[in-house]
Design goal:
CATH architecture: Beta Barrel
Strand order of the largest sheet: 2-3-4-6-5
Number of strands: 7
Number of domains: 1
Structural class: alpha/beta
Number of helices: 4
Helix content: 10-25%
CATH topology: OB fold (Dihydrolipoamide Acetyltransferase, E2P)
Shape: globular
Strand content: 25-35%
CATH superfamily: Nucleic acid-binding proteins
Length: 175
């Protein structure tokens, strides 16, 4: 007596599937399909359409947006040299701060639920020594954003032009 077992189901690998489709297309006389169009680059027009600006033209970015911009070369190319405004809590910067010219602005973002907020901290750099501040007080910061390679990582750094205490926002955590 012979048992016929169903064939084992194996995942088809993408490369193998593409090779099969390509060979099948050649066998029936269909040329290779055209490559997908190149991905459009992020532009200043895109930034202006997606991010509000204050009356002076500074882009209103949340702290997580500033931090995440360091991972996208297209966004960096557009945002570098632009004036940004953000609100968050201030704290000292203990990293790469030998001259005492840096602080950090921090903000929490709720990723899945209020029990699991993610902390983001953007670097603030001052032309001279950083001003005195009350740790974890709420501030509004305006400055020019730049990107620097520090310890092998691209870091967004806001060169501060205006630094003021501000009232605590209605929503302490971003959603």
């Amino acid at each position: 007596m012979t048992l016929l077992l169903p064939p084992r189901k194996r995942p088809v690998r993408k490369v193998a599937a593409l090779l099969i489709l390509s060979l099948a297309g050649h066998a029936i006389g269909i040329a290779n399909p055209p490559p997908p169009p190149p991905k459009a680059a992020f532009s200043l027009a895109d930034l202006q359409a997606q991010v509000p600006q204050n009356k002076q033209g500074a882009f209103l970015l949340e702290v997580p947006d500033i931090c995440n911009s360091g991972g996208d070369p297209e966004v960096q190319a557009v945002l570098a040299g632009k004036t940004v405004e953000t609100v968050g809590q201030v704290m000292p910067d203990a990293t790469n701060n030998p001259d005492g010219k840096r602080l950090r602005v921090v903000r929490s973002l709720i990723v899945c639920c209020a029990l699991h907020p993610k902390q983001y901290a953007a670097v603030l750099e001052f032309p001279g020594k950083a001003p005195a501040f009350k740790e974890m007080s709420w501030i509004k910061v305006v400055g020019t954003i730049a990107y620097r390679n520090e310890s092998g990582k691209i870091m967004p750094i806001v060169s501060v032009t205006n630094f003021n205490e501000t009232p605590q926002p209605a929503n302490l955590m971003l959603h």
